[in-house]
Amino acid sequence: MRSYQGPGGKQPPQPDGQPELPPNLSDDELEIVEASYRVLAEPQAFDALVEAWRQRILGFERSKSTPLENGALERTSEAVAAIFARLPAPQTGKNSIEAHVADLDAPALVMSLSDQVIAINAAAADRFNLAVGRKTDLDWIDPDSLGELHALRRSARLGGNRALALLKIPRERGISDLAEAELISPETGPGVMIVIRVMTAPWNPRVGRLLREAFGLTEAEAAVAEALYNDPDPARIAADRGTSIRTVRTQLQCIFDKTQATGQVELIRLIALVCANHTGAPSPQARWRDPLGRERLCFDDAGRAIAYSWMGKEGGRPALLCHGPLTGYVLAPAIQEAIHAANIQLFTICRPGFGNSDMGDGTALDDGAHAIVTLAEHLGLQGCTGIGLVNGIVPLIEAAARKPDRFARLLGIGSSIPMDSAGMRRLPPIQRTVFSLARDAPKALNVVVAAGFHLARKSGAEFALQRMYAGSPADIKAVFDPANFALVMASASMVLAQDGKAFAKDLALVHHDFRKSLRPACPLHFLSGRLDPIFSVEQVDQFAREGFCTYSIFENAGQAVHCSAPDLVASEILKFV
Fold it and tell me: What's the predicted TM-score (pTM) here?
């Protein structure tokens, strides 16, 4: 046993009303306490916290002589969770995709080469009516500038040298703002993306003075720089100044030489950065918005909001989709097109505590089933197909058992069957750890999830996705595929929209034995990935042999079957709806 001393030989900080930790801790308890407090100041200590609990779990499984989470560890978890709840949101890490739109007061967004939004700040979301995961038709860009954007996109696809372009963004009464479009290649991501930043920061006298002092510009050159910032047309600048185009071009070349800018685009970008340093507060990250742009709310009998949307053909045959913990609810374009052509309206629900749905007071199972039943009654669904992405099938099964008339058949995209001890032993380390905590140490799980959310908000959702799917090369390939990445980022944004309590509760669904809730009149079919890192084909096959489900195997797919094989998933959906 060792006595724990915090940094500087002091006991760790305790929130008001929290008892002091006992003076003696075992080695594995000490590792957990140290990592729990360290992760508050160092988000990167998340790995050490998970590893400390993993070692504790291995010892617990061997002996089971003491509780996994004893009194001392429970008090530590409660104290650390209380501190996490009071921490301000972390600053976005410089290497994350979100960093390209953070700390700017002007509209800014990152999009894929196929025009799907990957990251966006609130100013851009409000001005352009966009959201992460939504495909934009670029109608907010001046038509005369689209050629510049297309040229930049071609450069990215063909490996050209062009990396910057200037665009005009219309405002009211014929006025346009300038925006820079830049190619970026984040460390974690599917490849080249386009970041567009509107340069709305106005010129002011301090900017001219700074340019003169920093770069030695003359009064005339500073005036030309101001004119260029407001209108990047040398001919109009010459006309406004009553001089020749040749004179303006000569002055511009002098400015390029003094500032070491390679041309007009880079000079305007430099001026915009100087202007931005003399403006107001930056625009925050955009709040969660439905990528489909159709979100509606209904309310349960306690007044809690349930957010829902839909894909496919409005007024078509109804079905209901329930998302998993990381999957989101927006399916690939190929699936959306197929269900639209088949005259299917696929309603989607944000389960309690996710996206814009209010948190419930019960378990993930009860809250989820209650929300599904409430929405089904609100929509008047009768005898329809319920579709669950990964563990989203579990509350659907419970809802179908409670209201048999609402659902006639169930389709699970990605396996999710009751986890047994043998299944737990074959899990990748991080999944085995969090699922064990969900079952045996819920207070510790709250700390692990809070730390994980803190790290995700600092390092970027793409970093969190890479970590969560690290044990599955098939899933990494699928979620980071450029065709899927924007929708996957939208899914992560939905999860991160709230404080992580719903995500922590959601992890317990893996242990729920729903076999008693299944009914022959409402059959269950799984679309299972051959390479699923959580549920093996053998586990699903045994479940089927016991008569609880049927299943189809998707080769070369992991858990994210809907990302790996959208065309095949579309075909299966059409069979069941």
Answer: 0.82
